[in-house]
Amino acid sequence: MAFLLDKNATVLCTHGGSVQIQTTNTRVKAGGAYVTTMNDIFMVSGCPFTLPPPKPQPCLKIQWLVPATRVRINGTPVLLNTSTGLCQSAEQVPQGAPNVVVTQLRVQGQ
Questions:
Q1: Could you tell me if residue 110 is inside a domain?
Q2: Which of 8, 14, 48, 100 has the fewest CB atoms found within 10 Å of its own CB?
Q3: What distance, in Å, lies between the first and last C-alpha atoms of the chain?
Q4: Residue 78 within any structural domain of the chain
Q5: pLDDT tens digits, residue range 16-57?
């Protein structure tokens, strides 16, 4: 069991850039904030990664790969604090896994 990822969660890219979460879920809340699903948008800002030369490839978004297996909202799997994702650059170059730093601690799923 793991905690459901909510809109107010603190998520960082592999290099420490902050993530803004935009969810379309307006039905289910956990800990006072809407729960995120696999189809939501996770945009990265402030990623300091500027290697490899000659073209910098900072993280721009997160593509989630492994969501919850048993919990869904409107048929779409929710995300957990243990879900597997991949930070990507504007050209969809994989940059590493995102870090879920803080999320709600009331509702768990699998």
A1: no
A2: 48
A3: 5
A4: yes
A5: 999 999 999 999 999 899 999 999 999 999 999 877 667 788
Instruction: For residue 24, give the amino acid letter.
Output: T
- Which of 37, 2, 6, 13 has its CA nearest to residue 102? 6
Inter-residue contact 98 to 6 (CB < 8 Å): no
Give one DSSP letter per residue of 6-48, joined into a string.
BTT-EEE-TTS-EEEEE----S-EETTEEBPBTTSEEEEE---
Q: What is the pTM of this model?
A: 0.91
Q: The domain that contains 52 carries what CATH number?
A: 2.60.200
Three-state DSSP at 84 gives strand
Domain count, the chain: 1
State the Cα–Cα distance between residues 14 and 95, nearest whole angstrom. 7
Range(s) of the domain holding residue 21? 2-105
Q: Which token pair is 51?
A: 């290697």
